[in-house]
Amino acid sequence: MRIAFLSSEAVPFAKTGGLGDVAGALPKALAEEGIDVSLIHPLYDTTDRHLLREQVFDNLEVDWLGHRRRVSVWLSEAAGAPAFLIDAPEYFSRGRVYGEGDDHYRFAFFSKAALSLLGRLGQAPDAVHGNDWPCGFAVAWLRAGRAWGGFLARTRTLLSIHNLAYQGLFDANDLWRIGYRHGEEMNVFMSNGAASSLKAGLMTSDAISTVSRRYSFEIQGPEQGHGLDWLLRQRQDRLIGITNGVDYDVWNPATDRHLAAHFSADDLRGKRACKLDLLRRFGLPEELDRPVIATISRLVAQKGYDLIEQAAGQILEAGAFFIALGSGESRYENFLQALKDHAPRRVAVYKGFNEPLAHQIEAGADIFLMPSLYEPCGLNQMYSMRYGTVPVVRATGGLDDTVEQFDPATGEGTGFKFEHYSAQALSDKIREALVWYARPAAWRRIQRNGMRVDNSWQAAARKYVRVYHALFDL
Ligand code: ADP
Ligand code: GLC
């Protein structure tokens, strides 16, 4: 089985969020299952050039905006599966991955170049597995191409939704220039008067997956459907939820190179050293028995930052430290700054993206907050569990699927989970968690329950393999 895995971000080449982690780990896990998988990815100016092994093509021709454009392609082995990186500085040397006014051109070009590359490599894959809106273009092109036969006519497609809220919307007048010229080809993009590459991909892919089981149901309803629930309901027999895994080569407190000390479920002593290291890093008082409540996230409404804002006062009243790592919307950055100014000996904030610090916080914190409004899967709650940091989450999407509420009667459970999206429900759960934090034996039990959960990629990779095979039975 030969798979071309397309992503706009993948660790170690680029990462803005969980998709980077997933696309960095899943191809490797698929390769371990015997799949012949290659990653295709843009070569950004921010990508570390040391990761590249060699230039494999210096003249890949891409039919683009009425011209033949030539780009070069680099090969890297740094991702655990061969990765081909498309070098088009005009589009990918922008200092960042997304957020440019011409993103639809940038990723349509990426999609087009990826398909040209497959042609150049000379062996059609059995399936193209695309991720999120940037790859919707490739899926739509493949479907359109089937009508005229040719090299990729037998290649099947799977599109994975990592976040339905990001739909790749753009001015429908640009479709013609990008190269979708026939009625039906253009129609699949149309979404409330605009064009959407995600919608086009969802309309035209042979199968659709999303990153947790619960989210696969949630997106079929109007509340989480972001206007596309009708389409997902229509295609529900082609839609599957596969919960993400954790790359334990990267997220493992027993080996993590970013940590001051190492630890595991059998020997938690190093975690205290990591807590001390974390408090020192942020210049907080070295009060090791005071609980550290932490968050790491993009600062957007999705992550429940409105609830954190409202509950922050109670977190401080309850006597905890609060540590936040994140960047995003200025209203949340301002709130964090104000909170820190208000209680500088109890609150620490790092505004920005900092990978080593994310590991150090996972290791040094006691409680991890993820009160998300919605969460397709979420990775940090799973990292937290492995690092003995107990998650407090809202029961939505993948958070609900991966965190089990602690039950004192049985001693089972890996964290604390609330249903209702309200600051009151969040503060109540934080208070409940703190009650158990104050009982060290019970707390260690919860920590160990979480640390022993196996969220490795293997199980998920096997499910994807089954989906790839099923594409040929459709
Ligand atoms: P999402 O993809 O919606 O942002 P996930 O929980 O799936 O949420 O994944 C987020 C990933 O991005 C995690 O690996 C997390 O550690 C990382 N991350 C988020 N914000 C930051 C930040 N400011 N600095 C470092 N890593 C971050
Ligand atoms: C998205 C989602 C997140 C998920 C990640 C990886 O960014 O917001 O919940 O874990 O993709 O699939």
Q: Explain this structure to me?
A:
By secondary structure, this protein is an alpha/beta fold. It folds into two domains: 2-245 and 458-473, Glycogen Phosphorylase B (Rossmann fold, 3-Layer(aba) Sandwich), CATH 3.40.50; 269-453, Rossmann fold (3-Layer(aba) Sandwich), CATH 3.40.50.2000. The chain is 39% helix and 20% strand. It has 18 helices and 18 strands. It has helices spanning 18-32, 89-92, 103-121, 136-147, 174-178, 183-187, 197-204, 213-218, 229-234, 269-281, 305-317, 330-342, 355-364, 380-386, 397-402, 423-437, 440-451, 457-470; strands spanning 2-6, 36-42, 54-64, 67-76, 83-87, 127-131, 156-161, 169-170, 190-191, 194-196, 207-210, 239-241, 292-299, 321-328, 347-351, 367-370, 390-394, 416-418. A nine-stranded mixed beta sheet has the order 3-4-5-2-1-6-7-11-12, with helices on both faces. A six-stranded parallel beta sheet has the order 15-14-13-16-17-18, with helices on both faces. A three-stranded antiparallel beta sheet has the order 8-10-9. Helix 1 crosses helix 18 (457-470) and helix 11 packs across helix 16. Residues 17-18, 21, 296-298, 325-327, 353-355, 358, 377-380 line the site of adenosine-5'-diphosphate.
Q: Which architecture of the largest domain would the CATH scheme give at its second level? A: 3-Layer(aba) Sandwich
Q: How many angstroms separate the termini? A: 16 Å
Q: Nearest-angstrom radius of gyration?
A: 23 Å
Are there runs of 5+ residues with pLDDT below 50, and where? none
Count of all domains: 2
- Which small-molecule ligands are present, each listed once? adenosine-5'-diphosphate, alpha-D-glucopyranose
What strand order characterises the main sheet? Answer: 3-4-5-2-1-6-7-11-12
What is the class of the largest domain in the CATH system?
A: Alpha Beta
Please identify the oligomeric state: single chain
The count of helical stretches stands at 18
Number of strands: 18
Q: Give the percentage of residues in beta strands.
A: 15-25%
Shape: globular
Main sheet, how many strands, which sense, barrel? 9 strands, mixed
Structural class, from secondary structure content? alpha/beta
What share of residues is helical? 25-40%
